[in-house]
Specification:
44% helix, 38 strands, disordered N terminus, alpha+beta, 18% strand, 1164 residues, translocase
Amino acid sequence: MDFSALRNLISRYCAGEENWVDSRTVYIGHKEPPPGAEAYIPQRFPDNRIVSSKYTFWNFVPKNLFEQFRRIANFYFLIIFLVQLIIDTPTSPITSGLPLFFVITVTAIKQGYEDWLRHKADNSINQCPVHIIQHGKVVRKQSRKLRVGDVVRVKEDETFPCDLILLSSSRDDGTCFVTTASLDGESSHKTYYAVQDTKAFNTEEEVDTLHATIECEQPQPDLYKFVGRINIYLDRDEPIARPLGSENLLLRGATLKNTECIYAVAIYTGMETKMALNYQSKSQKRSAVEKSMNAYLIVYLCILISKALINTVLKYVWQADPNRDEPWYNEKTETERQRHILIRAFTDFLAFMVLFNYIIPVSMYVTVEMQKFLGSYFITWDDEMFDEELGEGALVNTSDLNEELGQVEYVFTDKTGTLTENNMEFIECCVDGHVYVPHAICNGQIMPGAASMDMIDSSPGPGGREHEELFFRALCLCHTVQVKEEETVDGIKRGIHQGKATSVYISSSPDEVALVEGMKRLGFTYLRLKDSHMEIQNRDDEIERFELLEVLNFDSVRRRMSVIVKSSTGEYYLFCKGADSAVFPRVISGKVEQVRARVEHNAVEGLRTLCVAYKKLSPAEYEEVCHQLSSAKLALQDREKKLAEAYDSIERDFILLGATAVEDRLQDKAADTIESLHKAGMKVWVLTGDKMETAAATCYASKLFRRNTQILELTTKRTEEQNLHDVLFDLSRTVLRQHGSMTRETLSGLSNEYHDYGLIIDGATLSAVLKPSQEGSGGNYKEIFLEICRNCSAVLCCRMAPLQKAQIVKLIKASKEHPITLAIGDGANDVSMILEAHVGIGIMGKEGRQAARNSDYAIPKFKHLKKMLLVHGHYYYIRISELVQYFFYKNVCFIFPQFLYQFFCGFSQQPLYDTAYLTLYNISFTSLPILLYSLMEQHINMDILKRDPSLYRDIAKNSLLRWPIFIYWTFLGVFDAVVFFFGAFFLFDNTTFTSNGQMFGNWTFGTLVFTVLVFTVTLKLALDTHYWTWINHFVIWGSLLFYIIFSLLWGGIIWPFLNYQRMYYVFMQMLSSGPAWLSIILLVVVSLLPDVVKKVLCRALWPTTTERIQDSDNLYQSHLSEFTSLSTLHAPHRQQKRPDRQNPAPRRTNWCCICANLLLRNTP
């Protein structure tokens, strides 16, 4: 074993190098450095194999079994099975072993298949060919054999096989263009740079002569962070050191574009690549239904233990009489007499546990798994959620949370790209207070297309022309836009033609493209970046060349970017563009007030604004700037901090030029979707990084805020004027006073005076609110903030960092009501809140696919959220809640007669049912009808669910799985079990004979009870079904038919594999008796009657909104007209509606609805 790394680590720490940064040295082409340069220490790195699978061929069985038996239900049944094997129990081990084997096998097959698919995907990646330079020649290898230090050649449209440092490119300037859509989802082209000293190595032979080493940090998952240094050994003794940053690092999974080929060296391979390190496992999300199931399971476990204890105690009370303990026909052996009473009692207790263990439904878990897995396809198959523009429909990344879509109380949404299209259009710019609108007003002249626009005096006046052109040049130079010189459209290549640029602009930011295109419409065209020179074409069609010296890239902390360029006359300029809050404080001259007024005006209109400023640099100042930047870039430790300090000192003392305004339009039907969510009782919060005015305008446009909404501000501006403590208490008093006085009217929905509150908070104030208090009392503002938010119908959080978005979601999740939250976004900055929320939804937007990949569900557009929640979510919840309650109900019906039977057999653990019936009850006789119900039930037409969002409130807060409903189902099961048992018992109290004079025995009695049981629970489900299709009929009646056929075969044939056949001819004998037929029919009717009566009375006297609509739908057997007001259905009276003959409704029949309608129609 190699302990060199450990020894190295200890020696460094013992030497006192506290600030030592763990790094690696990579030898390019595996060449040793020249003698005397540095010690050659070969290091071990993993190969390039990617492993996303969970199991191997050898560990699948033990590992999968271990994971499955970690589930409480599976482990419980395993214990029961082992008890049956160890002690003498009343039922065969097969009765619990077979269902357990079935559940374990089905789950193992599913998980094994999924892992096999992962193995296939891994193999296809690991075996794909890569081209490596060895001894000046190109060698083809499998990807998995790639090693750190190998020099790789990658051609256009190929994917990078590992993390690489760019050495050289087929482009003269040493750049290459890359798309990182598979990593961060951004489909735009990004520029990466080769080191200046290696970009000349353009052939295999030249690359092979390169002597260099790379020192860089050890692998870490941040895609946008990389710190390294390359040492190039030329003829001189000392190597040339150059800094390496994220602009030199090509990530595995990214694709080369618009570049013929590149040469690069592998530095991170296999599971150490940044893409592999980002395969972090998401935290397991559990739905409210699953939590309810587990709570019910514990209750039933307690019931089971109670039953076993009661029977054990009563057995020994019964056996206190020696004649009962040892009757003459069943005397104990000497061994049995000598056993200690406690051991006998414990063995009996275990035997009763085994006898009653079927009350815990093991098959419920596999049915729920199948229901979720199969049910998730309904979202994928939904044509209404298919987007023609993208050519994609909705995706389900996890099926475990389907029913949670029907329980959402809070919706947290991003703004840009989620509510808006993220399709930027340049609207106007303002230079020194003069407004310029493309194709309308330019340089004081009215341009084509301005007929319908207001006249804006934009004459720059004397001396303004120079500033105006400098502003246009700044926007043509201060960006990272690339020009795609050849774009194929309909098979025709188009490019720069006759000096006029008809090329296509591509950038990682749609804002930048909009600004460059806007300048083009105003007369200044950006042409290309060639040999580190940027070319622009001015209004006079003259080509101007500027040498690009430095780019100070945009980051979300600074919120600005800058470039340093040198004009053809030798002047140095620093141009900067950024958010107003990032530029205005750094300006020392310019018409600040006029520009600020225009920026605020545009922000209120909902436009995205940027400010533009510049300063001239003297050659000495430029040299100082270069020194600052190079020393910061070469640092291996704290490079980002040093760069930030350098940028801060460089980007100062600007002269303000002007500002731009870009529009990001609202998505189609975004306002309608938000309005529907409000009506459904959900609170919608918008979390955005945009400035307050822009975000507020979007909120008004999307109907998040209405015109009568009273806006409460909790912003930095207000907290500067007033203490945060005072602001919070003022807002709290405002909302609570209004809430307290209006509660009754609000609930009735009749108040016109009720104030609708909306809250606006910014990131800085949120940090202050969430900061833990230093004082012991009165300083914790979280609760006050939450109280204010609870009483606001909508909240806007602006200037939010990605982490703050997740903090907000976490805060609401942890509040005392524990509401179900949903987060929806489209960008990488939304991933944290998507992972934090109970349900995360990603939008397949222009900001890429990272949000969609990390989400639980992905949809093409925000408008699809309406159907996903109001229709799919509603159906999923209704279906699974019935499934859970029904499973517990049918198992109570199944086992309670067994409990009662012990009172009539001397607590001897005699089973009431045959072994085959015990085994197949949950697997075959009653499983398919409830599975199909849970997949297909539609209690209300989906068009009505979409048109009337208030129906969503009927199922809110897990209303169908509350304790009163659970207790009702349990008592219903107990009642039905009592009817089955005592009904059969009293009907055959007088010994009944068949036609040939034979008496009914205990197996006939048990079979009679079991027959009534199967028919009752199946017909109970049939009565609850509203949506009938041929499949429902086939499965429900087919299950009953299967039970009858199985019973006839099981008792009608002598099976050679059975030691004894106690059921031989029992079923046929029972059916040959007329009283048996009569008792079956009578007991089924009596069992079902109370539930039917209760439902009919509740529907007739206290109907819910859902039930009124169901009754109406059944009464008139038609769709509601598209123009029908649904408010008529909320009132007790109904109006006759004309059936829609063109679009007849699916058949919805429910006997309880029909009875309730008849009762209503005949009630005076």
